[in-house]
Structure to design on (182 residues):
């Protein structure tokens, strides 16, 4: 009886890995750190993908609080540069922000088209949903956006792509309009 239960469990686990159970990592990724694991999440919405990754709970809460979660679920295509919980912990101001401030900062993590990490590297700057731009760079085999490093690239959701990052992106300074300069 014990052998039968173990066999069933092993078959269920193998099936989950082979058929892409949400949140399951592939067998070849089982020994890799979470940043290097590849997720099978293409059919899930952005929140489900972030939840299955397990390291974006603070971001999920912020997206829900600001209403951006609903907007991303309904967007035709987008890219989200998603700070991990560890990244948000390193940014004490993030937790103190008002809802409008938080909304502004989070919009600075969104691009209104799906951009793979490969395509992003071909761009010098990426236009963000807050009206600013983020500079892209590659150093020592690591891809950077602004001051953040992409630690989990190309996580696909039903309508976009997510790149996990190790820092909260700071809003770009906006230049005053020509008519307002003295």
């Amino acid at each position: 009886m014990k052998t039968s239960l173990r066999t069933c469990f092993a078959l269920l686990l193998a099936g989950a890995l082979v058929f892409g159970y949400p949140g399951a990592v592939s067998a070849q990724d089982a020994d890799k750190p979470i940043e290097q694991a590849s997720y099978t999440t293409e059919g899930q919405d952005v929140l489900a993908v972030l939840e299955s990754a397990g390291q974006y709970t603070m971001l999920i809460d912020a997206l829900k609080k600001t209403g951006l979660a609903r907007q991303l679920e309904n967007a035709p295509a987008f890219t989200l540069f998603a700070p991990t919980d560890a990244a948000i912990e390193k940014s004490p101001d993030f937790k103190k922000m008002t809802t409008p401030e938080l909304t502004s900062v989070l919009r600075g993590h969104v691009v209104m088209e799906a951009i793979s990490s490969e395509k992003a590297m071909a761009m010098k700057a990426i236009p963000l949903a807050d009206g600013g731009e983020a500079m892209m760079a590659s150093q020592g085999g690591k891809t950077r956006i602004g001051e953040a490093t992409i630690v989990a690239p190309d996580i696909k959701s039903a309508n976009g792509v997510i790149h996990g990052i190790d820092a909260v992106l700071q809003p770009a300074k906006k230049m005053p309009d020509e008519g307002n300069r003295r």
Remarks:
- Strands lie at 78-83, 110-111, 125-127, 133-139, 142-145, 148-157, 160-165.
- The chain is about 35% helix and 20% strand.
